[in-house]
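Please think about what follows:
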Amino acid sequence: MDELLIKRITKDHLATPQAIIVILILGAGGCIALDTAFVGKIVTDPIWRVASYVVVELVIYLIWESFRRALPKKLDADTIAIVIGIESSDTKGRERIDIDLTEAFHKLIADNKLTSLITVLTAENYQAKQINKTIKPLHEGKRNENCPASVKEEWAQIHGTINGDFYLWGKIYQRETKAKYVLDFNGYIDEDLPPHIQHELSSDYNTLWAKKRLVEESEEIEGFAVEAQFYYIIAKSIIAFATLYKGNLNISHTLHNSLERDLQNAISFEGREYLMTRVRKRLSIEHFEFARPYYYDGKWDLAEEQLNLCIKYDSQNPSGYLMKAVIQFWKYRNVKTAMQFIYQARDHSPSEDGTWRYSEAFLYMYNKNYVAALQCYNYIFKNPFKDEKLTIDQVLGFFNTLLKVEPKFIESYLILGLVHGKKQGNYVEAFNNISRFLIKSGKAGRYKYLRSLAKEYKRELLETDEVKKIGLPTFGEYRQ
């Protein structure tokens, strides 16, 4: 038994109620001995002597209480803390936690060159009991969407002290036959995540988290190494996922790259292929996000490098295809290839997601196929979809930019007018853009079909209260 383990076992015993009783008795005995030896001769008033001894006993108790309530703490706010809060009912189980589990975690972190990013906090047995006592009802309460306020408050104090990012909690014990260790572990992440992210995390838990796992005593060294690898991978995957959706892309990408290597080298476990697919999808999301700033800065080659990796990791990521389509247009004005990417995005998008339709409609319009374009737009205007506001903002930004680059593509004014009016209900902006289109299109025959639609919609806009309030512009072209 090593020195560290002896210290931890001693701490565990010191934190028990029996220990403080013994300590207080010893303290009282010491006070009596001192009183007999010389204190009684110096302080003759017995009330003062008794009062001072009571104070001494109280100080001893407060020191013990502070020790008993002490918790591990993350010292560096920039690191990610995995907290191991595992209880054990015997010395051998404690040894398994300290030597086989914690040390294995440290080795895995070092092997992955993540020591500057991830730290492991191992709770003493008495601290683990304190963590588990609160986290268990909290975990069950979250699962049942019903958690008492008192539990939340107690957990807020514990979590506020530890500041952990992932808690591996539960118990380790031996079956009565003594032939097997039972690992009754669970995971918890203290994050206020959006419902759809919580749902995805729940899906991961249900697929991966076999609550009780067994290790044969005869194979305990190798068995615990395998289990440590399993729990380390699961913990890291959950941390990486939460980090991604908190916007810490560089950290989440480092963790997901490391996870991909872990899973390639890991001994097979149930859910391994599921987790590998999840990790690759999240790597795809990260590469798409890395492409964004290059895209907005017009650095098309760098954006395409990231998008190629995005699609390499997840060939069904519609966002990657859509951005590649837009780059094909901006960089080459290659409508044909752009349309091919759009249809790939369509094939991999949920049926209710109409994001790709905006791009399809625009390319038809750019190719002067006005009938097909307006058919697409009519469908778009009649069929809203979830989170469409973000797409609308991007569409409006696209056409405002296009007008600066290609001011002769006056169809942009018509599309801006239709989107402002029919999607945003901004009838003033719709009226202004439709009027600009009518002015700039003049009497050119090629715009006859579009002008007819624009005039009809303008008449509708003139009947809205918003347009009536501003009155008609004084220059005659707006009166067409």
